[in-house]
Amino acid sequence: MRLVTFALLLVPILAPATALAGDPAPPTFEILDRGTAVEVIAHNVTAAKTAITPIRSRLEIPLVGHPRADKALPTDATVKVVEFDGNEPRVLSVKLGFDRPEVKALAKYAQAIQVGSDVHIMFPRVLPAAGAAIVLPEPTLPAELAAKVAAAGQIVPIALVPTPAPRSPRSSRS
Hints:
Blueprint: H1 2-14, E1 28-33, E2 37-43, E3 53-55, E4 58-62, E5 79-85, E6 91-96, H2 100-107, E7 111-115, E8 118-124, H3 143-152
Antiparallel strand pairs: 1-2, 2-8, 3-4, 4-6, 5-6, 7-8
């Protein structure tokens, strides 16, 4: 009798939470090679804000809630680890194969965007030369969202706002 009671108490603990009907899908990671750029997708998570913060050799984005998933260990030399880190707030952390100064410089070119229930981070594969313009590819759309866009016949580009050239100060006339 004790063994049966113990087994009944242990089953809910060992059963994965996703086995219950109506539970949301668990978070997962995906790393895509986009040629001169890399796209990291965290599926089934929501960003608290899409500002990217460089921390040591990592790019981090704060998340809503406390998602949990196994680390993603890619074979790409640019990305070393993708994981959720921290307690409050929980962050999506992408560890890069660069040192701190390069990550800080690379963060200026990186973009984060919430696409449906996924968070996408895109950044150049190499640090651009000083003053070089960089254009990142459009984020990868989930199949259902791509179908809606195709059905509507619209393409919604995400454009970068160009920075105006610095102006020389005018001398004041007295």
